[in-house]
Structure prediction request, 362 residues.
Amino acid sequence: MRTCPPKPVREMSRFHPVDRQTGYLLPPSVDEWLPEDHLARFIVEVVDRLDVSALEKAYAGRGSAAYHPSVLLSLLVYGYATGVFSSRKLERATYDSVAFRFIAAGTHPDHDTLATFRRRFLDELAGLFVQVLEMAREMKLLKLGTLSLDGTKVKANASRHSALSHGHIEQLEIQLKAEVASLLALAEQADQSAVPDGMNLPAEIARRQARLEAMAAAKVKIEERAKARFEKEQAEYEAKLAHREQKAKESGKKPGGKPPKPPVAGPKAQDQLNLTDEQSRIMPVPGGGFNQAYNAQAAVDTSSMLVVSLTVTQACNDKEQVVPMLAQLAALPASLGQPKELLADTGFYSAKNVEACEGVQH
Prediction:
């Protein structure tokens, strides 16, 4: 009988023993593997103190048992805090990461469950955000006094090369219509002349017609945006005229400076629509260049560094974000206190924004 030679014995006297085979005498507890001051423990403690009864009531109780909302919420919060945003990566982390295993209590919610939870309770999660601020206030961590406002461009899940401008669409339409007419003529003559090898005339015509339909739909949406922009600009134009007339009546003199220019109706040649993510916009990015993106805004308490209000907008100019942010801050519970100062860089500066801030103080 042939036997395998024994494994060589390595000199281990100077090293920690390496043993991956011996089982535990008692089942291990993941709680013992996580330091007491770990962020995961703090997030679980905070979420457990939140009122998630509205989320619990949303579950009908039919079918198999569901994961508790506090577990799913804790996974999302810890994931976002540590840079893990993908639902698939969150699911995988419940197997690979001790911290995620601790939060999930040894369970493994799949990525569909996590993604559905996030989409289904998006509005409710905003209410929980306010609860966290109120809890921070009770713990003396948050004392609204000086807030700092800043924005950052967040890249959309779309390429800027997927965007079409109104002017470019009109040029492409002329080109594609000519190609379709040429292909239709070629189809008519197919019996009399040879069609290039490998060309499927019906497929080529259908592809171009589908492209024309997509561009026609894009033009309609661009025109709708242009109409909304014109109505806004027209209202601002009329307000400026009324202000000039009022000043002229009060002073008895002709107002100085050039009168405001009336807005122009209709889409501009450079107005764009992204075919992949039509809600995103072309925006300048730090370092130069442009990207398909959104403009994320956050107001942060300067003493605790807690985010007290945030929003995502399609406008690339930060000057337009001060007044909406003031409105959001005013909607926070009175128990959080009243901000005294708002810090922002020069990208937010305008006379209108200064007046808006002074109006809040008074």
Q: What stands out?
A: Strands lie at 146-155, 163-165, 272-274, 281-284, 290-301, 307-313, 341-343.
